Amino acid sequence: MKKILILGVGNAQKDMIELCRKKGMYIYAVSNTSGYLAERLADEFYQIDIVDVDGIIKFAKEKEIDYIYSVGSDVAMPTVARASEALGLPCFIDEQTAVACNHKQLLRQVLKEKHVEGNIPYQMIQSSDEEIKIDFPVMMKPSDSQGQRGVRKVKDTDELKKYFEDTLKFSREKKVILESFIDGDEISVNVFVKDSVIKFYLISDRKVWEEYPGGIIHEHIIPSKYEKEPETAEQIKTLVADTLEAVNLKNGPAYFQIKISSTGKPYLIEVTPRLDGCHMWRLIEYTTGVNLLEASLDLLEGKPYSQKERFDIQPFSLEFMCGKPDTEFRKSNHGIPENVYIQWYYEDGQRVRRMNGYYEKCGYVIKKGR
Predict the structure, then answer these.
(1) Distance between CA 32 and CA 42 in Å, rounded?
(2) CA nearest neighbour of 253 among 282, 296, 288
(3) What is the DSSP code (8-state) at residue 227?
(4) What is the distance between the alpha carbons of residues 184 and 241, in angstroms, rounded to a whole number?
């Protein structure tokens, strides 16, 4: 029986753990926090910080692990790459790629050096007293965090000073990046690459909760309206291909967040060498019949890409039911749309965890139609 070590036990990891169990693997899961459903689904769970590379290497060696992997977690991917390489385990993620995608400054530098069209003007700061050299409004973000934690749009220097410490506390390296605010639609792009060839590519529309800062996700919609705008769609595809080449992402899944300006030009918000944290693999399976979660595990095991490469797109959307952090969860408090799939993250009476600090995911539905 093959042994797999899953880094993290958040809701996205639950999907991978369930697939590994279906494939007959013995599953170890580690995280520096506990209390999630995913940890109870693993065969064994241990509290180990997933950014502690030496600790992960030591644990994997002791347990004679065959594979190390994670989904939905930027901070896990450098550890996946470093630990796998140190132990001689299969891994399709390049360490430099994982590190660049996890650090916003490095990503912007790489895109600038490679002259990728669609990079966003930016500035790194470590103090709110530094001179701001890009125009307001800006998006203020921790340099090395994820999941919209600490992300906020600020309109001037006063707002920057007011919220700077709130953003800085989410950065492990104590740096903040300012990026020019792009006013326009948000989209996501999911791709799967094998030997530098894009095997899967799909755009989806991304709707956020407008009343909260940081672009907190509300809904993913397939197909994207930009599928019907050939010129913009082609620019998006070029930006994706150029970014993949710039960060040297040759194998596996990648998730892009992109904004489309009022002039129709796409700008890269972020890219990560993993599946997203929003269960979009499940939405994509409904819309196309392609299972990117299974494709990722197959690639880790050294199997060929076996998903279909030609498909029709059926309209579906994924909507999150959300609630305030630190409140008591009740299913009855949520209006549940008609759906083909539903999953809750909590049982009635449990406390909603504080993640982004504004409006937290409590579950999601997949609905037919746009």
Answers:
(1) 15
(2) 296
(3) G
(4) 22
Q: Residue 331: which of 348, 354, 318 has the closest Cα?
A: 348
What pLDDT is attached to residue 146? Answer: 59
318-344 residue pLDDT tens: 999 999 999 999 999 998 999 999 999
Distance CA 276, CA 73 (A): 8
**DSSP letter, residue 328:** B
Alpha carbon distance 104, 148 (integer Å): 13
* Tokens 């083909």 belong to residue: 340
Pinpoint the alpha helices (H) of the chain.
11-22, 37-41, 53-62, 76-87, 95-102, 104-113, 157-168, 230-246, 280-288, 292-300
How high is the mean pLDDT of the chain?
93
Radius of gyration of the chain (CA): 20
Whole-angstrom distance, CA of residue 249 vs CA of residue 255: 11
Smallest CA-to-CA distance from 81 within 277, 365, 368, 300 is with 300
Structure tokens at 41: 């689904």
Residue 266 sits at the vertex; the CA angle it makes with 262 and 269, to the nearest 5 degrees, is 110
Q: What is the pLDDT of residues 200-222, one digit of tens each?
A: 999 999 999 988 877 789 999 99
